[in-house]
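Researcher: Next entry in the queue.
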Amino acid sequence: MLPVNCGSHTDYQNFVVTNLRKYYPNPDVLARSTWDIIERFWNLDLSETDVILADKYSKFGPAPRTPSCMQRSYLLSIDFKVTSLTEWAAQLKINPLYAILSGFEVSNTPGVGTFYDFINRCLWDSDDSHMSSHIHPLKTKVKKPKSKGTKADSVEKVTVAELLPELENTEFHLDDQPYASLFKIYKKEFLDSSVDKGLIHKNALALAGDGTPVVTSHRERKHRVCKCKENGITDCKCDRYFSQPDCDIGWDSSRDCFYHGYDLYMLVDAESDLPVFPHYSCASKHDSHGFLHAFFRMKSFLPDYKISKVLLDSAHDAMPYYQYFQRENITPFIDLNGKGGRPPVYKNDFTIDKDGVPICPCGFRMRRDGIEISKGRMKFKCPKISRKNGCISCTCDNPCSDAKYGRTVHLVMNDNPRLFNNPPRSSNEWKLEYNARTSAERSNKREKLDFKLEDGRHRSTKMWYCRLYHILMLQHLDAWDLPFESTLRKLILNAA
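Model: Structure for this entry, 496 residues:
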């Protein structure tokens, strides 16, 4: 192939204006929702895509399609809810609008093979369509939870305490990942643009995380590669050949059923609901492990992003998390799951409530009275102290202290960073911050329902990553403000 002639974004805009004047001289024939997509793509500058993918092309052979046009066309197929590349290639030939917005001449649009060649040669940096080998041992099956609506127990063979230091000390190199080119385009063209527009504050990032099931097929496809069945052994534990080796069977707590596919773990900016970094794991992967795999990869691939807060649900309630965040000066907002336990007695005669508030010997929750940052402790005072007519007195029937201000308890945060955190779980500040954790759920909803992630029906991790990253790009694109008045419509109408 010959070197790619990149052109410029202005060339693309002029091409769109010229052809819209020709094929759609009356803008009102197009629906308002369609015009919204037209405006966004007309303003979307993808010229950096041509630069990033320039080394993917040879200096010899016929001239290729411009990478930015192929990229833009794939994005359009998702935005117009066309889930098949075969169907999209056909639509390009019969619908002039799709061809024009992509940057193709109406009479010269790419076929389905060109799209797959673009994905294989430019977007996926590996000869293998999967991340792992097709032949591998049978995995431990996830057990159905006893109560409805709860997540399945972890089947991982390593604990969070073992996995966290292992991943923390692992050097992840972006160029070693098969999705490296996808990530570079996503970061350069979309994530960095959202930062520049002030939608994401990378110097003080409030990061929300959550896993969501992605169904890829109705059943697991595998077959034997051993001779055990021929020898009369029907329940052997030998390796099997899996058609989708990166997927397995997991439990979907929202639908209350088993499924085959991936567990998609999303790290999202809690303030803007915009995605930051995704990671696919097998369906049986527990969220406590999925977060670690996504988090440390994100730290390696986005080293200039400084995380100030982390908002996670109760599946991540493990002591190693709190200890790590304490070392890294990251404030955790993690809900308790009730399984981690709490010290039955603190300071000899005080117990600790489920949200880290001390309970006095008479059974009353004590009242928070500030935090001593320099000493790393929280102060709680007696809830029965009364101030009337300038007098201070304890109204408890059985006072536990002769002090004028009643009994005071100091909780040292280093004693148990899981329960004694700043701000305390009982405070309005903590509850207000934790409410932002639902941004991860809203982002997952956008990907799965609005952009129909699961409708791809692909059979390779390569295609699932391509579809996912392009959906994340559209999420950022939709968040960018458009001019109040349509410049494109004016250009068309003035020419008419």
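Model: The first strand starts at residue 135 and ends at 136.
Researcher: Noted, moving on.
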